[in-house]
Amino acid sequence: MTELAGVTQARVIRSEWIKFWSLRSTTVTLATAVALLVGIGLLAAGMLGSGDIGGPGPGPGNLGPVAASLAGLTFAQLAFGTLGVLFMASEYGTGMIRSSLTAVPRRLPVLWGKIAVFGGVVLVVGLAAAAIAFTGGQAVIGGGGASWSGTGVARAVIGSAVILAGSGVLGLALGALLRSTPAAISTLFGAMFLLSGVAQLLLPAAWRDDVVRFLPANAGEAFTAVTPDSDALGPWVGLGVFVAYVAAVVIAGAWRLRRSDA
Description:
This protein has one domain. It is 75% helix and 0% strand. The chain has helices at residues 9-22, 24-49, 65-69, 73-94, 96-103, 108-141, 153-178, 181-202, 208-212, 216-224, 235-259. The protein is globular and about 60 Å long. Keywords: Membrane, Transmembrane, Transmembrane helix. The chain crosses the membrane at residues 21-46, 66-89, 110-134, 154-178, 185-207, 236-257.
């Protein structure tokens, strides 16, 4: 099938931008994710400042000041990941994907357009929310707080936005691969929030830690930690592993979009 005249990647991105903001779930989910990241962060920072969850240092069993202010990251990941699933999989549920692929017969520009729009929005919104959570959290903690100039602090805050965007794109790619909202959300939740716990329970102790630290949630956490645990990956290795997971699912989703009927 010959691609329709005038179809360019830029125009596909513009079309996906319009579709993204026309979803009823978009504004609500974005606001929910921001509220979770900022609200839980301020709450944890308040508890840390009052001494309810240990001192300001990152010792065992304690939250450091940066980790406390970003304590809502996991919940925001789930919200953004769910929105990513809806942005892709809902088109299969409503049948709109057929219209999208009729307008763009080459198919893959639709996926690239969705990733560009969604990843860009989540990165910007996540960065703003993480910066607010960190700045507000340190104000609540007071004298025991951290500063932007501290070692690893900027990486942790900016890295939180990167991990949020990656989690959202992962959800979108799972929507393209599985084409079912419940299946994609369940897989996302399992991979990001259950897999590490299951591995800790089931794997032999001799090589448990070596495997667990390479799982997606642990790899992302290594990048956002100011001082990674001794048995965790290094920050940039952790980012590379996390991006590799996202890229693998994107490639799988692109393959199915290209090879299978809508």
